[in-house]
Amino acid sequence: VMVLKARAQKRNIDAWLDATAITSGAFLLYWVGFLAEFMSNPNNPLNTVALSTVYNVIVFGAGAVLLRIGATPGQRPMSYKLLGVAGVSFVIADIAGAISAANGDGILITLALSPIVYGLAFAATWHPSAGEIVRLPDVAEDRLSNFRLIASSLALIVPLFIAGAPAARDGMGQIVALILATIITAALILRLTRLLRSQQDLFDLKVEREATERANVSIAQNERRFRALVQNATDVVLVLDASGVPSYVSPAIETITGYPVSAYLGRSLEWTTHRNDWDDILHSFRQVLKHGESQRVEIRTMTSSNETRLLSCVTTNMMNVDGVGGIVVNATDITSERLLESDLRTAELFDPLTLLFNRNTFIGEVSRAIRENSFTQTETAVAVINLDEFRILNEGIGTEVGDEVLIETAARIRRHLRIGDVVARLNGDEFGVLMTVEHDPEQITEPIDRILTGIAKPMTIGGHDLTIRATAGLAIDSDGSLTGVQLMRNADTAVDAAKESQRGGVLLFEEQMGTEVSRQIEIRNRLRHAIVNEELRLVYQPLIDIGTGRIASLEALARWNDPKLGEISPAIFIPVAERTGLIVEFGAWALRTVCEQISKWDAAGLRDFSVSVNLSGDQLRDPAVTTMVASAITDAGIDPERLTIEITESILIDDDEIISKRIQEIRQLGVKLAIDDFGTGYSSLNYLRRYEFDILKIDRDFVTPLADPKNRRERHIAKAMIGLAHALDAITVAEGIEEVSELNALAALGCDHAQGFFFYRPTEVAEVAEVLWRSASVRHQQLAS
Ligand code: C2E
Ligand code: CA
Ligand code: CA
After folding, report:
1. Which atom in ligand 1 lies closest to the alpha carbon of residue 569?
2. In angstroms, what is the span from residue 552 Cα to ligand 2's centroid?
């Protein structure tokens, strides 16, 4: 019963059909072979027949049950097989016993076979595999095997044979045989039908299973691929549920945070996420679950060493994807990128050399100030400060020194700022200062003047003693009507204008400056062209020896007549040439032209005078200037004493090392040196002590007042200048004499030479010879008389 219960749990019609067919078959054989005759034998007592019937029903019933068990699919261990043999032996022993008893031989055969039956049953019980009898296979398979097909077909033939048996020919025996044959046939047909149907089911099942298997394989592949991608990537991949609890974390997490994967699994990520970011990530989860689209969030996570790392996360809903089943978060560590970005941002905002704001940032600040100040009734002022002659310094001594000068200048500007002022390096040698001011232009230029004075103080850089001067332009917005860019442009214009007329000082922007400056730009462009094509010329202004009245020397002065712009004064184009670097080329041309001209006059017999050439500060700082002068002299084959170099006083007072060195070099060539415009450049006796010079030219500003005899102070000053020059073995020249009174006054003071419109205007070279001849004849006349 136990085995039956265990193995035949399910209602298994097929097993019962098998059992019924086989039992019926066996009974049919038994019936036609023995039982039918026994039953119909009138000699047998009725009670024996009844007992035999009951007994046979029980035995065959038991056999059917045994067969039912045997037909059940399941494990067939040794114990099971022993039990089966015991059962079959029992039936055989019993039937054999019944037959022999009926023949009057007793049941000896049954008794003889009994030990085998009991022995086998006992062995089955005690066999170690006894426990396995009740174990069912995982899948019950009912296959239409060849064996089944043959067995069933043969069993169908059995009733046909039996139909012809003698015992089945009469009455009762025939009826029972027919019933049994019908049962067998019906059971077998039913069974075969079911087998065929189940075979179809099996086939369908197989197809289905194969499909499932294939699907399983692809899921497994996907999963393998997913892991392979994720396992080795530098990005971290996490699979989380909606509350942020990870079921998978890729190993890259450890390189980012220092925590192992195991630290993350199974608990909400809240513990490692920045407090302010936790809601963001949960929000993104809700979004991703609701709308399906991937979300991007940036969250800060904590590392094992308590540092904060910034992760850029992309969350994707993969809840319904086999092998994933969660929200997939793809996290990239962007901490260093962000830091780099902020570095770059710093570079965007600041000038890397001086660490001041750069031009763009400054313009932004100016715009902001204009907006804010328009509310507070204050004005916004922008000053642009430009270093003078910086380019020359940069090229002359080197960019390292140039950089240091810029850094020092930045520091000096800063030192003079007031609270709230903003300073920036706008470009190259240009700085900007933003100020908020009350309405009073005087008050505005004053702090800028202080800055300029601060810059102009001597500085020692890389072993060089330098003096850097700067010029400033100032522009104001009084009512918020200008943009930052416009205000800046005005300040730029003002500094350009200041460069022309107010070097070393500050100029406030005025409307018409714009046109002036654009004219400057035009001059600049055309000058380049003019110098390259030698469209400039030199005129010569004679200087008179006051004592003799003859021409003592000539000053070469540059002239430029541009076909479009007209006659342009050297006072205008020389500074332009300096700023654009064209001065070097121009200077070389001028010197060469003068030397050649001297040589020509020489050849023409005009000899007893010298010719002076003006050299600007920028020209003097050019390291090649000495060789340039030297080669101009030797190429023309003239006596260097015939040449005088004029240097304006203002470039000497700076005590500039380079200038000083150049002057020594040039003097060693044997040329004479004149100090031009004396008295205008904040005269310092110091440089008079340092440089040996041959000529001192008193500026027109000191000459003009002498026309009035009442100006006693000026007379004393002029007298002192002349006395000083003489004491230093130099001769004096009075510049710009237009009136005879001026000449008389200077003659009385002992001035040596005079220059001015009173005598000669600057003269075209073609006319100079004639002028010289006339002067020479005057001299002859003087000598004659
Ligand atoms: P500077 O060296 O002081 O030259 C003298 C200037 O005074 C000349 O002006 C001359 O025409 C002018 N002048 C002469 N006599 C009188 C007078 O009686 N009254 C008045 N009001 N002016 C008089 P210019 O030719 O316009 O030159 C202006 C400046 O340009 C020069 O001043 C000089 O610094 C510069 N310059 C001229 N030519 C050259 C040159 O070839 N090279 C360099 N580096 N600078 C030059
Ligand atoms: Ca001069
Ligand atoms: Ca002069």
Report:
1. 26
2. 15
